[in-house]
Design brief:
The protein is 45% helix and 20% strand. With 246 residues, the protein is an alpha+beta fold. The chain folds into two domains: 58 residues, Winged helix-like DNA-binding domain superfamily/Winged helix DNA-binding domain (Arc Repressor Mutant, subunit A, Orthogonal Bundle); 171 residues, Beta-Lactamase (2-Layer Sandwich), CATH 3.30.450.40.
Amino acid sequence: MKSPPPYGVTSVDHALRLAVILQVEGPLTVSEAAARLGVARSTAHRLLSTLVYRDFAVQGDDRSYRVGPVLELAAQTRSDVAELRAAALGPMRALVDVLDETANLSVRTGRTVRFIASVECDQALRVGRREGMVFPAHQVTGGLIMLATLGDDELTALYGGAEDRPDLTRLRAELRAVRRSGVALNLERSERGVVAVGRGVTAPGGDTVAAVAVSMPSVRYSPDRLKEIVAALTTASHAISAALTD
């Protein structure tokens, strides 16, 4: 299980979030960084300058910042993630408006899942944003959704040499249930006190490229809410898929 450290340092968290944004989305300005983090422009400038000093970022002639040599990725990867975020943020905000719970968008890379977008709800007791965090795919809602698209041989190959290999017999049974329902339910599987429900997002052609999920404190979840949650998730996932097609 992954829990926020009790000694978390806000400035470190902000710097790491900026590094992730630069890595998966591409360039941004000081103003854009400040808006994403909800901090002053001067604070964003100091954070970006530190990333430049440590080679996590570089500044271009246009004064914007882009990923540095430490974190450099292929341009196509950044483009795909940026497109997914752009398509998802509107439907995710609508999802949060309906359910008043935090929404997340995630993608799978191998045996891990990265959260690439989050929209928090306004409730005092809520699940915080997961944007930029990475979890083992078999432990989180979005990961189960995307693993369910694999065949048995693909799943075996994926986890063949893994040191933290899950019980594949149990995982296959769970993935069969996900395929039947199109929904993954995470009851405190990845984080104590957190329940999440998710659905897949498809690209043109029908491939599942991401998962959208809502996360809530376990004290606010009951099976009676599941029908409402799934209906809202279905609307959101279809809207994101439609935006990708457009």
